Amino acid sequence: xxxxxxxxxxxxxxxxxxxxxxxxxxxxxxxxxxxxxxxxxxxxxxxxxxxxxxxxxxxxxxxxxxxxxxxxxxxxxxxxxxxxxxxxxxxxxxxxxxxxxxxxxxxxxxxxxxxxxxxxxxxxxxxxxxxxxxxxxxxxxxxxxxxxxxxxxxxxxxxxxxxxxxxxxxxxxxxxxxxxxxxxxxxxxxxxxxxxxxxxxxxxxxxxxxxxxxxxxxxxxxxxxxxxxxxxxxxxxxxxxxxxxxxxxxxxxxxxxxxxxxxxxxxxxxxxxxxxxxxxxxxxxxxxxxxxxxxxxxxxxxxxxxxxxxxxxxxxxxxxxxxxxxxxxxxxxxxxxxxxxxxxxxxxxxxxxxxxxxxx
Length: 360
Ligand SMILES: Cc1ncc(COP(=O)(O)O)c(C=O)c1O
Description:
- The protein has helices at 58-68, 80-92, 109-117, 137-146, 167-176, 232-241, 249-258, 261-287, 309-318, 343-359; strands at 75-79, 99-102, 120-123, 127-128, 133-134, 149-155, 182-186, 208-213, 225-229, 291-294, 301-306, 324-325, 335-339.
- The chain starts with 57 loop residues before the first helix and ends with a helix.
- Helix 2 (80-92) runs parallel beside helix 3 (109-117) and helix 4 packs parallel to helix 5 (167-176).
- By secondary structure, the protein is α/β, with parallel strands linked by helices.
- The protein is built from 10 helices and 13 strands.
- Helices cover 35% and strands 16% of the residues.
- Bound molecules: pyridoxal-5'-phosphate.
């Protein structure tokens, strides 16, 4: 048995899951095995929606493998990386026994999935030092070993704090937890960061998994295409536990178009604009009256603390600008998270905050 399977719930290691019509390997000319309609819908002008899709579309899997420089067997495609988070928690955590470790303030889905699975949540708060939020990695390892933690979620760049965890530090944690816990690095925003992805380290560190998504840099949030990159033995179990047809054919089509060389070149240009805008908005925001602090974020957003976050939020809203109010998150009771928009939209954020401060 592959060592990574020791971390999988014992009752699921050999679970076959649902055997769908598309997963049965047979060939033929006339397909009458899935109770599909023999005619396409009038609404389906490209005739791509009549049949159930391949559960893991091979062409998309291989395009994603090329993009992330891994092999297709290391990839499971799901409905956004959200589905991968949920699947990982369900497949690894025994309810009421195992735990999931998170580093708040951080993306909320890890805690939601833990709660739904009845897994305990172990929280190791980020440390807010003079320059940035930082993950307390020694404490992460210590608590993970002490508290039956099966999955450690590390978000890099972090949402909403925006910091990157150095690759060597993530690998050191994974080595310390080898055989005990899976370390999942959520790289939803890594395309916007100066640091490289850890995807290529998955092959040599079997308890490391990486989450990637087409929702952010690739501008396909509505297509819901994300993936987990992990040891092929773990991918195989996750696939068997996944819902029968998780990747809708129209979503596969748009994703494949987004991964052609021309579309990828356009994506790279958009990323460069976002990064330049991020640095420019960060400087200007930091100089704004009423802004206490702007974090050096590496994603497509900025986290800022305000003298009066409520007034800033309301002023932006009154001018039609909706940002994320972080005041309900731990350590962030004066903070807003602002996604980078177009240069014109970012200019409007600044102008609105400037005008609001002059009035007050
Ligand atoms: C850190 C992080 N991970 C994962 C996701 C989910 O992304 P997806 O659209 O791939 O489900 C988000 C969405 O905002 C996120 O911020």
